[in-house]
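User: two proteins, same treatment. go.

Assistant:
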Amino acid sequence: MFWELIAVIVAGVAGAGVVMLLARATGGRVPKWLIPVGAGAAMLATSISNEYSWYDATSGNLPEGVLVAETHESRALWRPWTYLVPMVDRFVAADLPSMQPNADTEGLWLVQLHFFQRWHPTRTVQVMVDCPGARRAAPSGGDGGEPRWIDVTAEDPILVAVCGGGA
């Protein structure tokens, strides 16, 4: 976050500098009020670029075997450009190398899911996935009790990632 702030400030200085050079090159025919407009436009463009590149940068740095299972695209009124091109603001990744099969039940896996969200710390949750039964569950309360199973469709992105990658 700190480096993104620095990048935005540098972009603002650069944007103002470009307008000042343009004014000097044209012999002062460019109005002075365009200098802060150039700075603001450069800062806005840098911020938008940072928002859109977050997903690619984060998912591209995942360790080998950690598969992006699901993404969430965001649209917001205060970001009107997202109605034209939605941006990914969070995603779920399945840690396939750490999957553990159940010794008693064929096709039952324990997998770690990592939840990534822009400007939030990453959360990790262990989830059980029943590939033949097309269902998944988080261990209930972590106390060794019965899990609460959720029936999902065969197209469920987490089920596809786990069962397609590990089963």
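Protein 2:
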Amino acid sequence: MVVRTVDDYLAQLRALLPPGPAWDREFNPGVDQLLQAAAEELAREDLRAVALLAESEPATVRELVPDWERVMSLPDPCMGDSPSFQDRQLAVRRRLLEVGGQTPAYFVDLAFTLGYRQARVVEHRAPRFGRSRFGSARFGTWGAQFMWTLETGPRQAAGSRFGFSHWGQSFGVASNGALECLVSRSAPAHTLETINYG
């Protein structure tokens, strides 16, 4: 969408004036002031129309986050009592666009969106004839076929540091509670998941 400026609208309104001395700026300067005021209002409405289009897209929503949350039964209890505005935006996007799943890739993507850029899932193996070897580390038990570990890698980049944080923000904050809540809520019911933080 093209956003027109005040000058664009002023030129357009001047061009739309009918011919005659009553509309001449030289004889009637009040007409030009009226056109200037109308051009400013039209340009402002253009900007608000663009903002409205941005609010209809979950990737760019800002002003209507509370309305999106009301419709989608948010805020998510996994995000705590007072999530940050960016976390609320992310929750709106996730609730609207996320399909879900129970694959390792889904849980890696879940950790990635929370700031753990090197996350990976390790699926444990149960001993089976032909696959198990004596002397191998982690021979495992039969219950291991239902266990998996999410290794997060290094602490998330969004953690606070001295000199890069604002007043009232905790140092070294990582949304571990949110990650644990989301993983345990989405994990298959028959599995036992653990999270290793790097």
